[in-house]
């Protein structure tokens, strides 16, 4: 089920207008698509941040003045390079009957055999690029690593997704691997320099006493 996000109409397009909106806790944005003319809008910053944190690639039901509720996806996010504040967001209106390209988070499950044997699980990919109908987009894709042994890799090609979902990520890319555990090197005791030379005079003195 899509999350509903309410938008406000935005007329001012100058830098000063955008800064004023941000000072009011709103994010300047734009929505466009085949069935929607490019429209400047403003979104509540807290609501938008919560949505992005939950799922940046989710389908959103954007309630736009004069346009009504439109199914959209976030196409681009602009942030301040220093404080990471949201500066601007592009929303792309989608057709629910046409496939879309999107990205889905990967969630790794199970305890790998290699980990039980002392290996280390190293995750290489955290997201997967796919293409499918908007209604088929999974909230997350689970990846079972329980059968993975030490030195083995799990490739994108091993994933089995529902019919109608096309994987766009390279099938040869590594999802996860089990690293061989490193053996601890034995500690070596460094001999103190001059230890033998310090004992030499004492040994020589002992020999001279025996001859007296």
From TrEMBL:
Keywords assigned by UniProt, alphabetized: Ribonucleoprotein, Ribosomal protein, RNA-binding, rRNA-binding
Gene Ontology CC annotations of this record: cytosolic large ribosomal subunit
Entry-linked InterPro entries: Rbsml_bL25/Gln-tRNA_synth_N, Ribosomal_bL25/Gln-tRNA_synth, Ribosomal_bL25_b-dom, Ribosomal_bL25_C, Ribosomal_bL25_long, Ribosomal_L25_dom, Ribosomal_uL5_bac-type
UniProt cross-references to CDD domains, sorted A to Z: Ribosomal_L25_TL5_CTC
All copies of domain Large ribosomal subunit protein bL25 beta, residue ranges: 100-182
GO molecular function: 5S rRNA binding; structural constituent of ribosome
Residues making up the signal peptide according to the UniProt record: none
GO biological process: translation
Domain of life: Bacteria
Annotated stretches, region: Disordered: 181-212
Gene3D superfamilies in UniProt: Ribosomal protein L25, beta domain, Ribosomal Protein L25, Chain P
Domain Large ribosomal subunit protein bL25 L25: 5-91
Family: Belongs to the bacterial ribosomal protein bL25 family. CTC subfamily.
NCBIfam families: bL25_bact_ctc
Summary of the function given for this chain in its UniProt record: This is one of the proteins that binds to the 5S RNA in the ribosome where it forms part of the central protuberance.
Known partners and oligomeric status: Part of the 50S ribosomal subunit; part of the 5S rRNA/L5/L18/L25 subcomplex. Contacts the 5S rRNA. Binds to the 5S rRNA independently of L5 and L18.
Protein name (Swiss-Prot/TrEMBL): Large ribosomal subunit protein bL25
Protein source organism: Paenibacillus validus
Gene: rplY
